[in-house]
Specification:
By secondary structure, the protein is of the alpha/beta class. About 40% of the residues lie in helices and about 20% in strands. The strands form four sheets. A seven-stranded parallel beta sheet has the order 11-12-10-13-14-9-15, sandwiched between helices. Strands 16-21-20-17-19-18 form a six-stranded parallel beta sheet, sandwiched between helices. A five-stranded mixed barrel has the order 2-3-4-6-5. The chain binds adenosine-5'-diphosphate and magnesium ion.
Amino acid sequence: MDLFQMPISNLSGVSNARLMYFQKLGIFSVGDLLYFFPKSYENRMNQKYVAELSDEESATLTVRILDVASRRVRQNLTLVQVMAEDDTGTLKLTFFNQKYLLTSLKAGQEITVFGKVNRRIGYFEMTNPSIQKASKGGNFSENFIPKYPLTKGLTQGVMQKIVADGLVQAKEHIEETLSMDIRQRYCLCELLYALENIHFPTGEEELQAAKKRLAFEELFYLMLGLKKLKLQQKKMAGPKLVNYKIAEEFAKKLPFGLTNAQKRVTREICNDFKQGYQMNRLVQGDVGSGKTMVAAMAMLICAKSGYQAVLMAPTEILARQHFEGLKTYFEEFGVSVELLVSSMKKKEKTSVLTGLSEGNVSLVIGTHALIYDTVQFQKLGLVITDEQHRFGVKARSRLTEKGENPHCLVMTATPIPRTLALIIYGDLDVSVIDELPAGRIPVATRIADETKREKVYEFVAKELAKGNQAFVVCPLIEESEALDAENAIRLQEELQKTYLRDYRIGLLHGKMKADEKDSVMNQFANGDYDVLVSTTVVEVGVNVPNATVMVIENAERFGLASLHQLRGRVGRGQKKSYCFLNLADEKARKRLEIMEKTIDGFQISEFDLKHRGPGEFFGTRQHGLPSMKLSNLSYTMETVRLAKEATEQVLSEDSELELPKNKRLRKAVQKMFSEHSYVNQL
Ligand code: ADP
Ligand code: MG
């Protein structure tokens, strides 16, 4: 029986009332349950409360520290004495010659201790116990207790029992997906063993073996699925777009010459158009590398070949900016282009929709509003998504479904190290714009601690006095737009009252309505504001060449990729530009120093990869990928490399995964991609 067909309601302890909580966690089947991994572990060998202890017993307790003191008993004997308690009683901990504990243990902390207890009058005492900060998870060599990322309504104890029962029930049904050959070559344990030990490790080594196997498995399925998709797509007939001479004429009309990288990537796209197969291409190019022009040429070729094209941007501001920037160029070539965003009046929208479905409108630029069913094309030939990391694969495919295998171009300014790009974008061909337009002056970047904050704003004021403009960005405090908005409002008020009182300060945040945002952004672009205080809304692609300063408050709260994106908002004109990373937490300085050293996004992402591992890149940044179940930390570059090697080896022998020995593997890959609209193709 298939694990993912076994309902969890069969397990003891899963009442109807509890079923709902499991569903909230995305757990429907026993398979889902076994692949719901702990976030950490605690050693709880003989876990007890103080009131349950008996004299001379070895036990583990979790207690709160009340007081820490030290006492020198004689020349070479110092005692550290800790008074602690749980809800049931008092525990005294005595350490011999471990003075360093004085600095690491503090009143109020919760710790887990393991050792032998002695009964005293009114309390228990433990001498030289092993200790562990309670939240840390297991470092003890045996008996790990899993801690799951639960929702309200389920306790760790209940979950543990149910998982244990799940493992017993599933035992006979767990099917090994990796061949003996692969397991041996890469030293991977069996699936059953891995699942047992990821939930209830018998020791540290066993836990590591389980993680290694499961991380490998996950990356392997992912790469197999993406690679297979790519092989399949290569065979899909696509519109033949032939009028690529028009791109040259377009380039002649620009006030600047295209960079070599822009030309190369445009050629790569034209080659795809000629083939007669559907194009699935990613254009990776750093902020300001001029991706828009490449997209524009592709759109024009498409229109001049008798097809329609669509460009989708993640925000209305950006969509409008693309539209305004490209409209006149397109119209010069007699190509009709329209904007479609949700804030437009119904009448305007209807007219665009009619134009598209009847084929009178060749090109459309817009936002998510484009994916609705009401948007129909007469003959869609090309779908372009800008800043594609902001969209799921679903949004993209809902657009492509509006035509017959239209060509797909996705553009991203999030540089990903080459080694990973080939994997993460495994279903796409990758083009790289690795050259900035000539004459760009690198943005000078400085990290500033709190003592320098005043200096930073004095500098900003000087720039403003010259007629330049500035961005000030404040970070995401919570996952809440309301709080972010408040934060931005306060910052605007502060600056208006203090350092920047002589200047006009605009405000932009996620709680504002689309048209409000738009009007503020436009006012800033037109120079009606000197300063724009903003949340990260401003991150994506906005172009204001007169802005020469960017201040990022609480820079420590941002990842390097975001900082790089934000910084890309300045230095887009001919003037020297500056970026200040204001720190409230000095500890972050080391991590951010790379920002002072380079403006090359690829270099920054390589640095990120080296220091934080590849997990990040598979997680939050890539909304398009199937979700990965293991924590980011479990992926290493080594695992990535091995999984890639195995993928190539398996597909070279059996590109469709049709051989009987690959049957389970195929099923596992399909399962991983099953929440994705492209599953049908696998
Ligand atoms: P991004 O790759 O970040 O989307 P854009 O397409 O917005 O970059 O281009 C950034 C700026 O550079 C725009 O003002 C654009 O007009 C300009 N630009 C694009 N290509 C060139 C070029 N070859 N030479 C000079 N400026 C260019
Ligand atoms: Mg852009």
